[in-house]
Amino acid sequence: MSTMASLGSTLERWLTGPRVAMLPSPSSLPPPQLSFEFFPPRTAKLEADLWACIRRLEPLAPRFVSVTYGAGGSTRARTHETVARLRHETSLTPAAHLTCVGATREEVDAVARAYWQAGVRHIVALRGDPPAGAATYEPHPGGYAQAEDMVRGLRRIAAFDISVGAYPEGHPAALSPAADLDFLRRKIDAGASRAITQYFFDTDVYLRFLDRCHAAGISVPIVPGIMPVTNFASVKRFSALCGASVPAWLERLFDGLDEDAETRRLVAATVAAEQVRTLQANGVDEFHFYTLNRPDLTYAIAHILGVRPQAAGTPGPEGPGADRQAGAP
Ligand SMILES: Cc1cc2nc3c(=O)[nH]c(=O)nc-3n(C[C@H](O)[C@H](O)[C@H](O)COP(=O)(O)OP(=O)(O)OC[C@H]3O[C@@H](n4cnc5c(N)ncnc54)[C@H](O)[C@@H]3O)c2cc1C
Fold first, then answer.
1. For position 215, what pLDDT does the model report?
2. Which residue, 14, 95, 183, 276, has fewest beta-carbon neighbours within 10 Å?
3. Distance in Å, CA 181 to ligand 1 centroid
4. What residues contact residue 2 under an 8 Å CB cut-off, 6+ apart?
5. Up-side HSE of residue 171: CA atoms within 13 Å toward CB?
């Protein structure tokens, strides 16, 4: 009786449920362009971890690798050192994150000029978040008020390649989705050549955002930010702050795995691989990975996307030569 009942529900699902097509095999699609994001290390041990991560990912010949800027400019020196070392000791093209928080325009401009002098041609220009303890963002009296102003300032300094942030689910401070999109369009109009998105877990959210960007006349690449989740609890905490929603299905997948790091990693790889393959099947051909300075998941997911190590000395599509042609000292 119970067999009949379960057969009935299986048949019911088969007859009425959605048909889901196979995803195309990676070999039938060109390998996508990748970029990787790192954060500057605080200790000697973390520095060793970061450089092991960089060396593991370097053969994948990413388009660029970026280094974050701590809240309120707290990592200014460490970001600069990491970017300079990437520039001088690797085949990679580094991009330096820079924020408007707690600095005058002159100070931000001086940091940008120092990057240009060091041969760094790519800046990820961001407003930054309010310093810890402050509820709302207050621009520095003599500083750039928001990312759009910084993009304009950088353009006046040199011919930087400029990336900006984008928010498929809306920035938490956005007045409306339309106002948020308008802010993005203004950053692009000010001179940014690409946007990198906040991470998201619902692929449809990003694809619909892309539709809205195109409808608003934004034609630069909107590169999806991919966050492989290994520490679900901390991703959930951070998501609440940055406005990325955590779907119930994701919560359920990590349910009961708090003490089981190995299974968490397997689940994380499966979730991220499914996400990037669905995006790739929808025509997305650039991905930015939030590596959290850990290489393994990013490497595995890149492999699934069809990206293979390049022979030493084979530059990626934009590096290392590209950023050094424009009159680097
Ligand atoms: C890819 C990426 C990398 C990041 N890296 C870093 C990093 O290295 N260091 C760091 O500190 N932070 C980083 N952040 C976080 C970022 O600094 C915060 O999200 C910040 O709150 C907004 O920065 P933004 O450059 O997007 O700001 P903006 O584009 O200037 O503004 C973001 C949104 O805020 C609203 N807004 C801004 N100004 C106004 C206004 N005057 N009136 C009304 N609404 C307004 C708009 O909705 C706008 O879209 C990153 C974010 C992303 C997506």
1. 96
2. 14
3. 12
4. none
5. 19
Helix, strand and coil in the chain, % to nearest 5: 45, 10, 40
- The beta strands (E) that lie in 40-180 are given as 64-67, 94-99, 122-126, 161-166
Name which of 104, 98, 151 is nearest 120 in CA terms. 98
29-83 residue pLDDT tens: 889 999 999 999 999 999 999 999 999 999 999 999 999 998 766 788 899 999 9
Angstrom distance (rounded) from CA 329 to CA 325: 10
Which among 79, 100, 126 is the best mutation to test ligand 1's pocket, defined by most ligand atoms within 8 Å of the CB?
126
Question: Known catalytic residue: 47?
Answer: no
Distance 80 CA to ligand 1 centre (A): 21
Residue type, 115: Y
CA 292 – CA 129 distance, rounded (Å): 19
- Residue numbers of the chain with a pLDDT score lower than 50: 1, 316-329
HSE-CB at 208 with a 13 A cutoff on CA atoms is: 9
Residue 289 contacts residue 267 (beta carbons within 8 Å): no
Cα–Cα distance for residue pair 163/128, rounded to 1 Å: 14
Residue 320 is predicted with a pLDDT of 40
What does the pLDDT look like over 283-316, one tens digit per residue?
A: 999 999 999 999 999 999 999 999 999 986 555 4
> Would you state the structure tokens that stand for residue 27, as one six-digit string?
């070999």
Q: What DSSP letter does each residue of 152-165 carry, written as one string? A: HHHHHH---EEEEE
The minimum-distance atom of ligand 1 relative to the CA of 288 is 1
Q: Are 68 and 95 in contact (CB under 8 A)?
A: no
CA of 26 to the centre of ligand 1 (A): 34
Report the alpha-carbon distance of residue 254 to residue 240 in Å, rounded. Answer: 17
